[in-house]
Amino acid sequence: MSTHHHDLRHDWTHTEVLALFALPFGDLIYRAHSLHRAYHDPNLLQISTLLNIKTGGCPEDCGYCGQSAHHQTELAKTRLMPLQEVLEVARQAKTNGATRFCMGAAWRSPQARDLEPVLDMVRGVKTLGLETCVTLGMLTLDQAQQLKAAGLDYYNHNLDTAPEFYGQVVTTRTYQDRLDTLAHVRAQGIKVCCGGIVGLGEDRSDRASLLVQLANLPEHPESVPINLLVRVEGTPLSDVPPLDPFELVRTIAVARLLMPASLVRLSAGREQMSDELHALGFFAGANSIFYGTRLLTTTNAAPDRDRALFERLGLRTLTSEWDTQPHACAIVP
Ligand code: SAM
Ligand code: DTB
Ligand code: SF4
């Protein structure tokens, strides 16, 4: 088993990355696919299932999000979901073939009374034989330690966009706040799931800048979700013009080139993507998806459609925890 450490760079410049984005489309996806094959089985997908364990009323003002208390959306605020309900959904997710279960809460950061019940959920989901992931907002070092002790495998916390564009999307927490949370998670030995959103109205330079930030973290995130904005009515970004779908594919390809060993996830927004766009995204290096009828508060691509697509494309899904370890499926020495 080889780890290819020579390819894992953390000193990417914006100029270099913009040059990758500017390659002719075929050249870019050819390069990305070639590197993809050196690190991963190109016909194998990791699938995660999401559950929103606490909806709405969030004090942050993220312009894309239907759960922010700053926006007038249709979502009702809920309390934290009871443990048994969470475990029931997790069991179902496992039956449906998910290897990782990701629980999200609409918090700026968890309060002490919030964290205890989430620790029980992590322990419970882990007992079912699923990998665990939570996304709860900002974390202190101590909270990260408690999650680690409960058996948490992954923490999802996205950088969302470029530092230059960030202020146009979120004003209630800083880019540095996000980097601090990522450092706390890393310091406790939890695997990092960190990516961003495209189609927020950012330009290509911003997309390059986001990927530079991700790749130049002290360690590459093991999991890199690339979300396409899901337009939610009532949010400030509900009528941003749609992104050229090839820009999404380019973003995936460049993420693959910068972070060759990571799992790159074709995340939110798949419901609106054609089968052909999915196929291009997988070819360009995406090897993970969210699977299941819902994302957090919006609908996801239907599971029937996904299964039919896997069949048509000859894709298999991961079935064991062992397979998802970074580097474990590198097929080229
Ligand atoms: N409140 C926590 C936080 O923001 O860290 C956890 C939940 S939050 C909904 C998780 C991530 O989902 C966000 O960072 C963002 O990248 C993504 N997201 C939220 N709404 C989205 C939307 N409408 N379209 C695409 N991605 C979205
Ligand atoms: C991530 O990067 N995308 C997921 C997960 N991490 C938590 C969330 C997508 C949310 C899409 C909008 C919604 O359903 O509310
Ligand atoms: Fe709150 Fe997370 Fe939504 Fe931002 S993305 S408003 S932090 S739930």
Largest sheet: 10 strands, parallel
> How many β-strand stretches?
10
Oligomer: single chain
Q: Identify every distinct bound molecule in the structure, by name, code or SMILES.
A: S-adenosylmethionine, 6-(5-methyl-2-OXO-imidazolidin-4-yl)-hexanoic acid, iron/sulfur cluster
Structural class given helices, strands, pairing?
Answer: alpha/beta
> What is the general shape?
globular
Report the order of strands and helices.
HHEHEHEHEHHEEHEHEHEHE
Q: What is the arithmetic mean of pLDDT?
A: 93
Q: Uncertain regions: pLDDT < 50 for 5+ in a row? A: 321-333
User: Helical proportion?
Assistant: 25-40%
Number of helical elements: 11
What is the distance, rounded to the nearest whole angstrom, between the alpha carbons of the first and last residues? 7 Å
Strand content: 5-15%
Question: Rounded to an integer, what's the Rg over CA atoms?
Answer: 18 Å
Task: Describe what you observe in this structure.
By secondary structure, the chain is an alpha/beta fold. The protein contains 11 helices and 10 strands. Strands 1, 2, 3, 4, 5, 6, 7, 8, 9 and 10 form a 10-stranded parallel sheet that branches. Strand 3 (131-135), helix 5 (141-149) and strand 4 (154-156) form a beta-alpha-beta unit. The longest helix has 16 residues, at 112-127. It is globular, with a radius of gyration of 18 Å. It starts with 13 loop residues before the first helix and ends in a 16-residue tail after the last strand. Iron/sulfur cluster is lined by residues 58, 60, 62, 65, 67-68, 106, 137. Residues 58, 60, 62, 65, 67-68, 106, 137 line the site of iron/sulfur cluster.
